[in-house]
Amino acid sequence: MDECRHLLRLARNNSEDNVVNALMKSAIVLAIAYWERHIEDLLLKGCAYISDSLRNPLDLPLKTRQVIAESSVTNKRESNPEAFSSSVWAFSGDGWSRKYKEYVQKRADALNTASIKNVREAFADIFGIKDVFPNKEIKDFPGINISEEFNHFMNVRHKIAHGDRTALEGGVTIDDIEKWLIIEYELVAMTMGIAWDALEEITGKSAIAYHLKERYVYQILLYFKENGQKTVTNDVFKKIGSTANSNYKKTFI
After folding, report:
1. Domain count of the fold of the chain
2. What is the pLDDT of residues 136-191, one digit of tens each?
3. Which domain holds residue 219?
4. Distance from the CA of 64 to the CA of which of 15, 73, 170, 253 falls in 20 to 30 A?
5. E strands of 76-173, at which residues?
């Protein structure tokens, strides 16, 4: 984003209209490219975090489980039962994680325009977040709906990308672009905070359900390091500790 501000400083210090317009357009295109990269990274990194941290896929939000299943399981149950069966069994074991990653990658690749509407829908489907843009205003611009303002910003960029010579007509100024950059900063911070809070809640439920605290995992690893490879029985877990014993019941019974 520093590059965008640098382009705007150059535009302020230039008196040639053609040069100023080129610098302003460049700043807009670069700023939206940064926004789209941020959204794509957040979706992919969030998905990877869940896939690596979640023990029980049933702790995924219901909406997320539904969209993954609908995108992965073929509906040709009668005409192609073999394909249907294979698509269902692909979820067994850690298969859910692979299917989840494939789905999120497809959504990220297909997010050609990271508009407020498209981003809101993607975060709802992938992370079960009802609204990743809950704040309508920010203190810097009271009375301005930041979602509507940012969509206007993206529309200007859309015109520029398609070679519309009138993209900056209608009163678009350097100050407007500065305002849009501030709003973008706010939206980046907003989406980051809300998304990672949701991710922690999703994975936290799974960890709490199994009571797997780090010190107990260490106890288990230490025991098997000292005693070598032995059959995992209830008696073995009792020797490690009461918490390990309770985890044995949840995991192996």
Report:
1. 2
2. 888 888 888 888 888 888 888 888 888 888 888 778 889 989 999 998 988 999 99
3. 211-253
4. 253
5. none
